[in-house]
Design goal:
The protein is built from 21 helices and no strands. By secondary structure, the protein is an all-alpha fold. The protein folds into three domains: 99 residues, Orthogonal Bundle (Cytochrome Bc1 Complex, Chain D, domain 2), CATH 1.10.760.10; 48 residues; 161 residues, no CATH class. The relative contact order is 0.06. The chain binds heme C (6 copies). The site of one heme C has 19 residues, from α17 and α18. One heme C binds next to α17 and α18.
């Protein structure tokens, strides 16, 4: 008995302490939120959920329509984040102070509900928000520099202002050459005249240059006629190519809607509003309903009071059941057929290639000429985007013995009937 007591006595205390200690530690571990997963699968699954549901309004490291999301699980608990994502209005209605402040800060812009997201979806989302697409500042700066360089060199070839300078310099050089030639002629004539020459040679040396003769010569007449014919033909063809060209056309729109704000600053994707670009011929101008997804709640620019008169116009359109009468900017004549999905989805061409830097435009203007020559030039130069397109595999194979890459012209991009009904 004694021995048992002594055996157990001290160690019992020790055991109890140790047990309590471990229980305490364990409690800490288990009571804390389960950490956000950093597995590759979770991050990439989260990215697709994010792109499908959140990207319109959120970025990870920058404020967009909604706040920058990275670090949300440091600011709030995982449980809070999940319930807010599922139904932010419920969290706000519960009187949560943080949520109410945030809501006010964002102009009472209601974030949509995401009740349909499963718990696994939410876990993946948080994994992506925490660990996905980390930007390395150095790499980003380099990319920005590269983009800047590209923009500087954009348009290709020599900028027009340099062309003018080059032409002026060339003219001056030509003039100088003429002067020098004249000097050489007069020196040579003087020198030759000092020699003993027979009559015919003398006559030859001292002959005057007669313009009259030149004008009457057959060669001159032929050259001039050819030049005039070429010029007239060129103007006529240019004229044909540019009938109805409206490059630079920028009409005033009924609502002061800004692409620089929505597509630039807020980085809303083009497809969010121009829903047709990937599926059909026409890009579509959004109806007022699409504006209302956000403007039901955003009534003015941050920091202003009351409802913006421009946004009021969207409400009026909805109330009166009248479409907003946007003025059409790009407009091909009926005889031409142009299909957006063919160029954007199949061809993989960026909107900006044809429409210019829309995301910087306060008011949209027509950036390209939209002439037949413009379409054809691009079809001559642009390679087919055959990657991942089985339809083209065979064509590319057939074409593989030719040296040039497969261009749009090679699949019939220059055939009249492809573009004309
Ligand atoms: C229509 C725009 C919109 C969409 C889509 C949207 N959000 Fe939000 N989100 C907001 C706004 C605005 C806020 C600021 C709070 C408010 O106004 O309700 C916000 C706030 C949040 C917050 C709190 C941020 C913080 O710093 O506390 C989280 C987390 C969040 N959103 C996650 C998501 C996730 C995840 C998705 C996609 C499943 C999503 N949101 C989709 C607009 C949006
Ligand atoms: C929030 C909605 C929205 C987003 C996002 C948006 N647009 Fe627009 N876009 C409009 C509206 C509304 C118009 C008609 C009014 C106007 O011309 O400004 C328009 C007009 C245009 C036009 C001229 C159409 C015509 O009449 O010929 C082009 C081109 C265009 N958008 C391209 C883009 C591109 C490219 C992007 C992405 C970088 C983009 N848009 C993003 C709403 C949007
Ligand atoms: C994804 C959300 C979203 C969509 C869709 C959207 N907007 Fe906006 N818009 C905003 C936000 C956010 C602001 C306020 C930006 C700020 O606070 O600086 C705003 C600002 C504006 C303003 C500026 C108001 C002022 O007083 O200067 C106008 C005008 C406007 N939007 C028109 C439209 C029209 C028209 C459409 C539909 C073609 C549209 N918006 C679609 C989010 C959206
Ligand atoms: C290959 C050149 C090209 C590309 C790339 C292109 N567009 Fe267009 N876009 C045009 C032409 C040409 C028209 C005039 C079409 C017409 O009048 O039938 C047009 C017209 C439009 C219009 C006016 C409405 C309509 O459908 O006629 C909008 C809006 C538009 N484009 C948006 C976009 C967006 C957004 C993208 C990128 C996702 C894009 N475009 C990519 C050439 C292009
Ligand atoms: C920036 C370059 C570019 C411009 C500008 C452009 N296209 Fe295209 N176009 C393409 C590419 C690339 C394809 C091939 C897409 C594919 O892989 O099917 C194409 C394909 C086509 C086709 C289908 C050809 C075929 O044989 O299947 C038609 C029709 C067409 N374009 C019409 C036009 C018209 C009309 C215009 C001018 C209003 C135009 N395109 C301007 C790049 C351009
Ligand atoms: C890649 C597309 C494309 C191809 C291929 C093409 N065209 Fe065109 N064509 C156009 C477009 C776009 C216009 C409208 C240009 C404008 O409005 O300035 C046009 C305009 C014209 C016009 C002028 C009509 C007018 O009202 O000014 C004639 C004529 C014409 N095309 C004939 C032809 C013939 C003939 C061929 C075949 C050798 C041909 N096109 C091939 C796209 C094309």
């Amino acid at each position: 008995m004694l021995s048992k007591r002594s055996l157990v006595g001290v160690p019992l205390k020790f055991h109890t302490l140790a047990l309590l200690f471990f229980l305490f530690l364990g409690g800490q571990v288990f009571a804390a939120d389960p950490a956000v997963s950093d597995s590759e699968e979770a991050i990439s699954a989260g990215k697709s959920v994010f792109n499908a549901n959140c990207k319109t309004c959120h970025k990870l490291d920058q404020k967009a329509v909604g706040p920058a999301l990275r670090g949300i699980t440091d600011r709030r608990s995982i449980e809070w984040a999940k319930s807010f994502i599922k139904n932010s209005q419920a969290v706000i209605a519960s009187g949560d102070e943080y949520a109410n402040n945030l809501y006010a800060e964002y102009n009472n812009l209601m974030m949509p509900q995401h009740e349909f997201l499963s718990d696994a979806d939410l876990d993946n989302l948080l994994a992506y928000i925490e660990y996905g697409d980390k930007v390395d500042p150095a790499a980003e700066a380099a990319a920005a520099a590269a983009a800047g360089g590209e923009a500087g060199a954009g348009g290709g070839g020599i900028p027009t202002q340099y062309l003018t300078i080059i032409i002026v310099v060339l003219v001056i050089v030509l003039f100088l050459i003429l002067v020098v030639l004249g000097l050489i002629i007069s020196i040579l004539t003087k020198y030759v005249n000092k020699q003993d020459l027979d009559e015919t040679d003398k006559e030859f040396v001292s002959q005057k240059f007669e313009f009259g003769k030149v004008f009457k010569s057959d060669a001159f007449i032929i050259i001039v006629t050819a030049l005039v014919v070429a010029l007239v033909a060129k103007t006529a063809i240019d004229g044909l190519y540019t009938v109805g060209v409206q490059q630079g056309y920028a009409p005033t729109q009924p609502i002061a809607y800004s692409h620089a704000l929505h597509a630039g600053t807020l980085e809303i994707e083009c497809q969010y509003c121009h829903t047709g670009v990937e599926i059909g011929k026409s890009a579509n101008i959004p109806s007022a309903n699409i504006c209302m997804n956000c403007h039901m709640h955003v009534q003015n620019v941050q920091g202003q009071d009351g409802i913006s008169p421009e946004i009021q116009k969207i409400y009026d359109a909805i109330d009166n059941n009248q479409p907003i009468e946007w003025v059409r900017i790009h407009n091909l004549p009926d005889l031409a057929y142009f299909n957006h999905s063919q160029h954007v989805k199949v061809g993989g061409i960026e909107c900006q290639t044809c429409h210019g830097p829309i995301q910087e435009m306060e008011v949209v203007y027509q950036y390209s000429s939209l002439t037949m020559g413009w379409c054809i030039d691009c079809h001559r130069q642009t390679e087919i985007n055959a990657q991942g397109n089985e339809y083209y595999d065979k064509l590319v194979q057939l074409h593989s013995d030719s040296k040039d890459a497969l261009k749009v012209k090679d699949i019939g991009g220059l055939e009249c009937a492809k573009c004309h009904y």
